[in-house]
Every structure is written in structure tokens, then in C-alpha cells.
Specification:
- The radius of gyration is 18 Å and the shape is globular.
- It has one domain: Vaccinia Virus protein VP39 (Rossmann fold, 3-Layer(aba) Sandwich).
- The N terminus is likely disordered.
- The chain has 11 helices and 7 strands.
- The longest helix is centred in the N-terminal third of the chain and has 21 residues.
- It has 295 residues and is an alpha/beta fold.
């Protein structure tokens, strides 16, 4: 039995390693008057140990992660109808460089499962198309709010509320949220003075109502940011990590994408979907979103 398991997951280890090696994003670098670090290489993961304390904390919720990953398999028939490549504006597709495949599938499954009254996202594009597809497929009641000064895709027609200004200059967007609503955050990922990440993590998050499902993208804990992102100076996950280490009472983990991505036995739970998404270019099976419920 153990031999069969190892043979089954070994290809998945190779796929994850290959994807980690090749993925880069066309983001601009930031120039400062002096570098934030003498060595910008990752501090945890990628050949080094993961952050031990955060890994131990996240491991406590593996049972919940498994349930969420099985929900992806539950919607395999609907998700398999999404094309690999973009066919028309405003439609979802799998081979996007901005949202890995498992992130897209988890976002879709979350909307289908919760049927939230409101969905509010900071940072719009391919994520919005998967949410809109979930709304259509499930006949959901969801009101979609997009906050993004310059979204990468033509998604305004998919949204009920469109806010085209920076999040840190926006007020009141979470005032009427209630349990079961969904917040998705894919912003600059930089904790600077009055940045969007700072405003969300310090002002909004601790004050969200109980029972709101929150997903923060590009959180790779318990590993550091990807080596190829070293000059982007992302820092959002470090502030989130401090919350986790301190045991913030308002965070109840639902799925840690970075944790699951490096554990093939968890990724294997989504085989019923990803084994059907075949083509010349493989779909990126990783997840970079940290999902939790406010408590």
C-alpha cells in the first residue's frame, strides 16, 4: 500500500517542483535608496527548512484542508468545462499567469458552497471571471464588488459594484458584511505606510464580522515568497505570519494554499479535476491563497 502511494504521488512532486522553477510574474521591481536586505533570497523553504512554528500551527488544520480540497473534486464536472485558454473577454480559463489552477478552483468551490450574499474583492481580473462563472453555474444570489484602480481584465460587466480607486482610499466597503459573505484580497502585497495591505490587515481584518470567509492571495506560508519574486519586495505574508504566531483569535484557518502545495498527498485529493484538464501545457496545480473564517 505504501509503495502504491509513493508511486502515485511521485509525479505530483515533479510537477510541483517544475512549476516552482518556471513561474515568474511580469511585475515591476521597486527601487529604494538602500535595499531592505543584504540577501533577498528566501529565508524559509526552497531547499531550506520551512518556518517551523508556522508549519506546526498550520498542520493542526489538515483535516479542514482535506475537506476543502474534496469540494474541488465535487465540482469537477462544472470546472472541467472551463477552457484551458481564453476564448473571449470576461470568461474564465485555466492557463492564466496570475491565478494558479488550484486557487481558481478553490475560489469557485467556495462561492458555490457558501452562496454568499456579498463577494468583495480587492484586485480583479481572472479571479472575477471564476466567481462570475460560479454565480452562473450555481444560480447564486451573490452581489460582486470589485475594488481595483486598474484591473488586468475586462470584468466590469461581471460586477454589481465597481470601485476604480485604490483600496486604501476606499471606505465602508465591508460595513454591511455578514456571516457567510466572502472577501478576496489580491492587492500589492506590500506592507508600506498607508499601503493597501497595511490598511486591510490592520484596519479591516480585525474588525470584520464573525463568520466571513477571507482569502488572501500570494501567501506561501510556511515557506517564504518564491525566489524569483525576490526583487518585488512583497511583505504582506510576514504581517499575517505574526498574527498566526501570536494566535490571533479572529483567524480560523480553512485552507493554507502554500502548505498544501508542498504536500503531494493533499494535492492528490484534487486529481478528479486536474486529471481531466489535459493539453499541451499543464495547468498549474498550486494554490497561493490562505483561506480562513473570521472568528
Amino acid at each position: 500500500m505504501l509503495h502504491e502511494f509513493k508511486q502515485r504521488v511521485k509525479p505530483r512532486v515533479h510537477q510541483v517542483a517544475s512549476a516552482l522553477a518556471r513561474r515568474t510574474e511580469p511585475l515591476p521591481t521597486i527601487t529604494l535608496n538602500y535595499p531592505p536586505s543584504a540577501d533577498p533570497s528566501p529565508r524559509w523553504g526552497y531547499g531550506k527548512p520551512e518556518h517551523a512554528r508556522i508549519a506546526a500551527y498550520l498542520s493542526r488544520f489538515e483535516g479542514t484542508y482535506r475537506q476543502q480540497l474534496l469540494r474541488v473534486a465535487h465540482y469537477a464536472d462544472d470546472l472541467a468545462r472551463v477552457p484551458l485558454r481564453q476564448q473571449q473577454p470576461g470568461q474564465p480559463y485555466w492557463l492564466s499567469q496570475y491565478l494558479p489552477g488550484l486557487d481558481a478552483a478553490l475560489l469557485y468551490a467556495t462561492l458555490r458552497d457558501l452562496d454568499p450574499r456579498r463577494y468583495v474583492e480587492t484586485g480583479s481580473g481572472i479571479s472575477t471571471t471564476f466567481v462570475a462563472q460560479a454565480k452562473r453555474d450555481g444560480g447564486l444570489r451573490t452581489r460582486i464588488t470589485s475594488i481595483d484602480p486598474n484591473p488586468r481584465a475586462e470584468i466590469d460587466a461581471l460586477c454589481d459594484d465597481v470601485i476604480r480607486r485604490p483600496y486604501e482610499l476606499t471606505t465602508g466597503v465591508y460595513d454591511d458584511l455578514e456571516a457567510g459573505d466572502v472577501v478576496f484580497v489580491d492587492n500589492s502585497h506590500r506592507v508600506f505606510t498607508n499601503s493597501d495591505a497595511t490598511a486591510f490587515l490592520l484596519d479591516a481584518l480585525p474588525n470584520l464580522p464573525k463568520g466571513v470567509r477571507v482569502g488572501i492571495h500570494d501567501i506561501l506560508l510556511p515557506s517564504d515568497y518564491l525566489p524569483e519574486w525576490s526583487t518585488f519586495w512583497f511583505s504582506e505574508q510576514y504581517l499575517l505570519a505574526a498574527y498566526l504566531i501570536a494566535g490571533a483569535p479572529f483567524i480560523d484557518p480553512v485552507l493554507a494554499g502554500g502548505y498544501c502545495t508542498t504536500r503531494p498527498e493533499l494535492l492528490a485529493l484534487t486529481d478528479p479535476l486536474f486529471d481531466r484538464l489535459t493539453g499541451d501545457d499543464p495547468v498549474d496545480r498550486r494554490a497561493f491563497t490562505f483561506w480562513f473564517t473570521t472568528a
